[in-house]
Structures
1.
Amino acid sequence: MFNLEAALDLATGNGVTGGSNSGTLIAQPAASFWRRNSYIGLKSSSLGQVTLGRNYTAALIGHANIINALPAGINTGFATATAAQGIGNDYWNSNQIRYDSPKLGGFDFAASMSAGEQGASGNKAGSTIGGLVRYMGGPFAVAASYQRDYDVAGTGKSLNWYMLSGSYTSGDFKVAAGYDAVNNREGRTATAPGGIATFAGATCPTTPTPAGSTVPVPCPYVGWTDSKMWTVGGSYNVTPLFVLAAQYFAVKETFGGTTSKQTVLNAQYYLSKRTSFYALVSQVKNETLALGPIWANGVFTGSNDTLVPNGKNYGIATGIQHVF
């Protein structure tokens, strides 16, 4: 099997470059057309599957349908909250070998590792390793994962993050919850509270104090931020074709201790088995670490940026979702 996936801006027709793995710890190209999935692999119903190339990390993708109750919510809330923490750097990893096990009763697992290819900096520099264990049986689904990433500069420093998620479905109701933590203590310095200093330190914003010194603040979308996130949500099938859902996210950055919050409301109407129309509205109440209410312009830069630190912001989106 193989898969090639590119991101396109439907408003302009332009390709969207950059994105996951474009900075800090992991050695990845800053711009590439097939910046999402681009891999080949072998698959067996009894042995599982192995993929080679650029792919979703095992530690993240297995949570997508568990942690979020929103039927069309993958690119709001869950994505924007984890991206603010830096986990967006691990949505996809290049140079990756990933194994996904077959179903073993209600259990399955996945593991992935990627090569940093940093030459003189050593084999470990820029590399990643992670895995996930999941149970999906009857009304219950739970998953736990862990990921470690090594600095591309060959300093020997690394960060790690873990994620837990669970959901329960009863008739027309579904509830979902999740928690994660990013531990980047080795990357803390006097000027870089949330990222490896080699990459994030020079561009970390600072806040002047009355004494004239500067206090560093987290660096969202530049690197990684020591932080914790928790979320809870639910959905209700009003009719077999119409679903209402809501999800709440809270992200607390460790260095300053402030918490940014996001609430998402979603309605989805199924036109057929594979096609649905959705509408959602999202509100963020940001502190120091800014979350986007929706996925903005794809890379959170430029005049269309929707990141507003220390303030409220809203986003509205409608669309048609088709499952091939």
Note: The two ends are 16 Å apart (CA to CA).
2.
Amino acid sequence: MSHGSVLRIGTRASALALWQARHVADLIARQGDAPNVELVHISTEGDVRTDVPLWSVGGKAFFTKEIDRALLAREIDVAVHSLKDLATRLEPGTQLAAILAREDPRDALLSRGGQLLQDLPKGARVGSSSLRRRAFLAHARPDLAALELRGNVPTRLERLQSGAYDAIILAAAGLKRLGLDAHITSMLSVKEFPPAVSQGAIGVCVRSDDAHAQRWVMALDDSDARLTTTAERALLASVEAGCQVPLGALATLVGEDLHLNVSVCALDGSSRLTAEGAVPALPTNAARLGERLAHELLAKGARSLIAAVRTVGSAVAAP
């Protein structure tokens, strides 16, 4: 049972994480007879370790582990995550009770001079914290200089405006949610820059034995977002890529069908593998579609691309 009738929602304290947690609190409050909700701020390893590139850190769940631990320790009743940060294998004893309606899943380019990606001058400095974005950037524009970019969304914007970068690439969803989308120069095409698995989706976890929290959270589940992210997460789990691999995927609903497109790119952009497929849009089909395309990618040689990335990651992470 939850703590009294109050539902405690655990969240990171960044502007975007708080927006997401308040959004969940608001959706719960709109239900009749809803319990009171309280936000609990939790600091994660990803918030503390801002000195290293995300991709060089071993292990997964960089931004979620501490929140899930608090959930299991019954310090909170509901955990709100950017779904793209959540490991494909959930902590035992927790369940992904809701996936909220998805915001724009695309990546956005923000450039100081307002240039589009193809118009950036040779050697322009482009900031990104993601190996995936850097690999696809190297594929699209090998003549640009990819630089590490950490910090929350407002901090990254400030660093662009201060001249530390000529352009940066961020998820459109976060910019839109924070009301910062006026800074977007252009949206990057999902063909050139396939987004991170589940980008733009918010995942809400509860304890598997907490019927009270389940009741309020499960009502928030969006069936379209559940279908598309289930396919994408099954793909990622089967490739066993984790967040440190330059893999992008996007599932979309087209009429009665669920489509899935996926690409894996070499870190230097030199080679790129893609796979795509479609199935009737039924919950039972979503995970199977992801698994099928994962096997197709692996058969095409994705393992060697992933192994090369792992070598780079462990070399950088070594003391």
Note: The radius of gyration is 19 Å.
3.
Amino acid sequence: MKVSSFAYSALLVPLVIAAGCSSSRSSQSSDNTPTSTAPQQPIIIDGLDSEWAKPLPGFSKTENFGYEIANDAQNLYILISTKDVLEQQKMIQGGMTVWINTKSDKSQGGAVGIGYPLDSRNDPDRNLMNEAQPNRAPKSVTLQDKKDYALYGFGAASEVGNFDYADDSNPQGIKMRMDFNNTGELIYEASIPLTTLYPGHNPNSSYAAKSIAVGIFVDGLPPNANIPRGAGGNGGPAIGVGGGLGFGSFGSGGGLGLSIGLPLGGGGGGGGGKNHVFKDAEVWQVVQLNNFKKGF
């Protein structure tokens, strides 16, 4: 997963920046500071979403995925869900990183991150295969090809640690999984111990006064990406409807569109159209942690 950042020269006149500079990365966020969700039942990090209430309170119209941020007395939980087949392949092939900024800044500066799936362009096994067989056609990428995830900035600020996907023994106690549920939605779940995010905080006292910013960064697909017909969980239909509505404390939004699982150049994506799969995107949400009271 490449770590995305923006660098603008301090010498540029702000009006010139606003008028003349553009980025392929789109940004969405809410100006409100809602409270994170209090789980109504224990959350199991397994790449399934049966314990999460629907509809999800957050929704990105351009990227066509829903999301939710929750916490209990021990962990911060993040859920991302999409049924759009192009967005699914963008996440799987392009790669994504979830950033957590404990200063509630919508910025990677000082944030920690979880990178999974890792960017296929930086996959050493795939690079070796491409060098050995330079003329072979691009191979479709599936979740089964994704074995590693990366942790950015946990511990030392510049530290990057790579871990096996099946191994939950990273020293920070972080868990994450991605899988397809039984309706064909791609589900991303992660849990991060609050003691890892706030090492100086007394774990016996409430975290409710603290606010965090969560950034979901999805990298655009490379030009030669191959999306199989019917891309999805278990093959899935060649044409799927991608859309959703989000209501609640995180704001509201909705999108509906056809998503056709074809090699890039054919098919449209719900919300942003097919061209959105080539573009980097980021979605930020600031929440205040809830004063969790155990209800199960």
Note: The chain has a mean pLDDT of 73.
4.
Amino acid sequence: MSVYTSIEPDQLEQFLKRYDLGNAVDFKPIAAGITNSNYALQTDQGFFVLTLYEHHSDDELDYMLRLQCHLAGRGVLCSEPVKDRRGDFFSSLNNRPVAISRRLDGVTLSSPDLHQCALIGAELARFHLAGRDFGLVRANPRGLDWIIAVRDMLHDYLDSSDLSAIETTLLAAQKLDLDALPRGAIHADLFHDNALFCGENLEGILDFDYACTDAFAFDIAVLLNDWCIDEDNQLIDTRVGAVIDAYHKQRHLEDIEIAALPLLLRVAAMRFWLSRLYDKAFPLSGELTFVKSPEQYRHMHRLRAAGVKLPAQLGRRVELEWD
């Protein structure tokens, strides 16, 4: 949500003629995140977010935006794209694909409590259930194939212990048949800064850039690694329990998914470690750019590789080594 591509007032005025959204009242960049160019847009008809996508293909955007519309239509709390006068979800501006979505109220959390963890766990389950009849498919853009490719690109930024740790996790993941896990549309990036709250109420889920078709349990692992950790990146049992219990009440977790969670927590930590290192090593040029440090997830990956104990309230304590 940094700004890589600027928009001039006359360009905005001309672009908004494609929509039934009225005239612009306020327009300013959103200076957070690392993926796209995002602007807060206020018109005389409401509040919106205008996004210029810096690296997505038309097929990827079609998947992402149609998924958001599909989920919102089934009551999932999420940002909803706005169609233009032609019925299109996105078009072009400054040689970039661009879309407008309705702006959600609320703020992001710095430290979610148990109630908020439960709310996001339940909403993620509703997301997974609502996406079961979504007809489009998108392979995970940052799955194992991407990790292998980026590991090679980052070879000069990784020491021998890093490379060994990555290789060990990749071998473990390849031994587990990830395709056998229940799967469908997932968010794949549901960090606490991609959800908005008003007080104790969840207002909605943001940022579908990495939404794809993959294992539901991987989506849960990504969430747990961010929402349910202490200052040393260790999992907090009560928060993990709150997320899993709330999720399970909406969508039954199968034994195979629970058994796979320790490894998926490790894979998710590796994915975000390498993503952040890649963004740091090969930054996009732009204004107000913000790159997250890879060190947190490097440390987390080491912790998850050392072994994960899931809380007893999952029905049993699972400690699995897939090496």
Note: Strands lie at 24-29, 37-43, 46-52, 91-93, 96-102, 183-186, 195-198, 201-205, 212-215.
